[in-house]
Design brief:
Length: 145
């Protein structure tokens, strides 16, 4: 049986259309087409330890599903990191992406499955969340750089 394929416009390659990859590609398409995320600032399945803004390496073998960068005053910084799940995400998945962000240090983190996206950020009063992905412009306006 021949496996289905899906094109990834960021990595510019054809991938197996596995359930998690389908979630990722639908989200990327929505981010670019409807929410104004620049393709040139999106990274897919990047090894966390290889991120250019990290000064301390801890040899993690983890990969971030989606990271979108923003331009700061002097360099790029991770604006949002999103973990994609083929199944309905739960607290364990949320804890996973929160743990990844201890290394990535994105201003926002997100988690997506086939039916929903939740975005989280830290404020003085604790972790805040919304149940949609704001536009690139809205996220940028929310960050004090």
């Amino acid at each position: 049986m021949k496996s289905r394929k899906i094109f990834d416009p960021i990595r510019k390659k054809v991938c197996d259309a596995l359930p998690e990859e389908i979630v990722r590609q639908k989200l990327i398409s929505h981010m670019i087409s409807n929410l104004g995320f620049p393709k040139s600032l999106i990274s897919i399945e990047k090894e966390i330890d290889a991120l250019p803004h990290l000064t301390v390496r801890n040899e993690t073998m983890r990969r971030a599903d989606i990271i979108c960068y923003s331009k700061g005053k002097e360099s790029l910084f991770p604006l949002i990191m999103i973990e994609c799940k083929a199944f309905r995400f739960n607290q364990k998945a949320i804890d996973q992406v929160l743990g990844y962000n201890e290394h990535v240090r994105a201003s926002f983190i997100g988690i997506a499955d086939e039916a929903r996206v939740h975005v989280y950020w830290q404020e003085e009063t604790g972790l805040k969340t919304i149940d949609f992905l704001p536009s690139f412009e809205e996220l940028q306006r929310s960050v004090h750089v």
